[in-house]
Amino acid sequence: VVIFLFYTVMIYRLGANPTAMISSRSNDPYLSRFIENYNTLKNDWYYFNSNEEVIEKATDAMLSSNDNDVYSEYISAKDSETYFDDLESDFVGLGIRYIIINDYPMVVDIYEGSPAQKSGMKIGDYLIKIDDTSLKGLKQDDIKKKIVGKEGTIRTVEFSNTKQNKIAKITIKALDGSVNYRVIDGIGYIHILDFSRTMPINVEKALKEFQKNNVKKVILDLRDNPGGYLDALERLADLFLPSNQIVLSAKDKSGTINSYKTTDNKVYNFNYVLLTNKGTASAAEGFVACLNENLKVPIYGQTTFGKGIMQSFFKYNDDAYLKYTSAEWLTPKGNMINKIGIKPTYELKNNIIVNLDNERKTVSQDIKNNTVNNNLGYYQKALNALSYHVDRTDGYYSTTTNKAIVLFKNDFNLSSEKDLSKKVQAEIIRQITIKANSSRNDDVLNKVMDILK
Questions:
Q1: How far apart are CA 76 and CA 72, in angstroms?
Q2: Stretch 26-53: mean pLDDT, rounded?
Q3: Which of 20, 30, 279, 298 has the fewest CB atoms found within 10 Å of its own CB?
């Protein structure tokens, strides 16, 4: 596929006759058919727009022809910079993560030591304005442009907790959101958020600080970690294992197995435990398996996502990329995890508040009394979790559901809102987000802390 695409794109760029150049050099009838189709459509198709669009969509069609692979994709030149920026956690900005709720960005996470944290911004706050620009109705990319920028730039940010608005002048700075760490009651806690290239450096900083503070036990939290770069996994494993230990192995299409091994003898020795959930994926799963199988580090939480395949990148001259699955990876003991995941040593369930936050709904339309609505089931469960009793969670707007909604609206100054309006839905989501990010609602972490004590 890669060779085929390379020649197809190169021929298009050179402006030559594809059929004449390729069919004469290939005995592949399907390749010849593709080129014939391309020429015919280019010359005679009434709706033909551009060479680039046809090649992009043809590539997309090839990559989607196998239902087993949802990870391979064509990344256009205009999208490639953003794509690879998103794989990294370092940026210059306020230091927040947000979702758009009811036309405004709502803060769902604030990085430790960030400008946003120092300004007094809290999880659940809405961003109203940045400088003189209202953020209402803006798209994700447009909001991002306002939040990030050149280090040292001062932004005037207006934010609201729904009761009052605050205005703060915030100096944006370089941040790395790959790792959060702290000491909790004498126990080291490292939350590894992704596998960016800078992540291993930040984990090592945390481990060195723990050594200085005479910490003996360390929790490595890989929950909701989507993975990232393989080389970040290799460098991270070097901090925990002596040299020549298998980190993971990769099996390619021909069945050839290549093992990736540690290369450094510098090891940070602590009593480790691992935390996982269904959002622990890819390289994060590789790291969990590596420590569990090599060092018998126990795993607490839920079974991981189960992404046990690796992707490679083919770069075109115009900075577009072809990302395609090139191998299946195996644990150090040769176990497959793709579509299976890694089971915890000890299964621990989340608080219902955390589960609701993980399945957070988007606000779409007003929901009226005495109706049935697919999204209402979520809000019924959320109201129960927030101690507003409802009698059912099947999406029917019952009398008891209405009473719970009325009580909720009264408590949050929304009594003028009709039924379950978009504004009321947004406030329910906001309250779930705030409570889910309170450490006292992290049942898994709290239970593990009790075990380690």
A1: 13
A2: 87
A3: 30
Hey, what are 205's tokens? 């900083």
Model pTM score:
0.82
Looking at residue 90, what is its pLDDT? 65
34 contact partners, CB below 8 Å, separation of at least 6: 4, 8, 58
* The pair of three-digit structure tokens given for residue 377, joined into one six-digit string: 């089931």
Distances (CA, A) of 296 to 223, 233, 332, 348, 447: 19, 18, 12, 18, 20
